[in-house]
Amino acid sequence: MALEKYLANFKEIKGYLASTIMNFTGSALASHSTTDEINLEAASAVFNDIFRSAHEASGKVGLDACTDLVITTPKGLIVMECSGGNSSEHIHFIVILETGGNQSRVRTTFKKTVPAVVEEMSRNEVSRHVKTVLDLIREFTALNDARFRHGGVLPSLFERRWSELKRFYGILRSQSGLPRRPVTRRFTAADIRRQVPSRSRLSVPIEMDVVFDCQGEYHTARMLNLSCESVFLASDILRCVGSRLTLHLANVGRGDEALSSIVGEVDWRAERGIPEAGLPRGMSIHFIDLAEPARKRLDDFVVETLEKLLLVLDADSLDPDFIRRELLSL
After folding, report:
1. Is the entire prediction scored with pTM above 0.70?
2. What are residue 169's DSSP bridge partners?
3. Largest Cα span, the chain
4. Which of 3, 129, 159, 190 has the maximum number of C-beta atoms within 10 A of its C-beta?
5. Quick one: CATH architecture of 4-128?
6. Backbone dihedral region of 62: left (phi > 0), alpha (psi from -120 to 50 degrees) or beta?
7. How far apart are CA 125 and CA 277, in angstroms?
8. Closest Cα to residue 101, out of 178, 176, 220, 14?
9. How far apart are the first and last CA of the chain?
10. What are the residue boundaries of the structural domains of the chain, listed by start?
11. What pLDDT, in 10s, does the model give residues 88-132?
């Protein structure tokens, strides 16, 4: 079933620019835009976070969670509607209008469209469709990004889901180095790029020696976690938070495109390690002033590593109850 047909109800409204239907985590179920100037995926995720924050804030002042929200800007309106947290399907609608757009008609259209979508989703169990591991990784990255934007904490419902998916992703990361299973669902790099578009904070395992230079002093360390934005260095030598250093790398990338050095800043330190995360003494380095070619090579490394990890994940790696609950296809 395609939910896009319900967005047609908004296309004839005066000032209409774009619309999307999302689940409560911010994953798009259907989208439509009349212009390439709106990055609907990025904008919708941000507006969804704002809507969820409004839910939480209205509850904290003794009111029920808000069901609609309007953001007015000099160039247009963003109109949002929620099906309700107690609905059989918790979904969010977002409609973007240009200045002077018919907000009243959007609200009228919401009244007939939202219940229709909820009914069809419940009937067809759209939100409980058979999933692949890429669906779970995409949901994890969406929640992880939202958690980062909210200062490291989400409302309890989302925090529980984030923790569950974090455990799943930790199991996936632990498959590094295992032999490829004989029969596997193969996900290509193109599949990963298409189905997991928000990868900037998604870390992958890596074990690679590196030399870092801080104020003319050179020390060796070992990279353990790598994303497009940061890396964890296992090192007995720690620098203060905020210290700038240069990492001299090898083997991240191929041939002439291999990275040679990256400038970063100490984000946080783990003087005694973090045993529950499997991290020894070390520090997290956030990359700064990263040129686009370097970011692309890091992203290529993340995607290629994910591709290899997915080749060895099988049903024996995961809790059978988790597989059944998620309707996960391996």
Report:
1. no
2. none
3. 66
4. 3
5. 2-Layer Sandwich (3.30)
6. left
7. 35
8. 14
9. 23
10. 4-128, 133-198+309-326, 204-298
11. 778 889 999 999 999 999 999 999 999 998 888 877 654 455 578
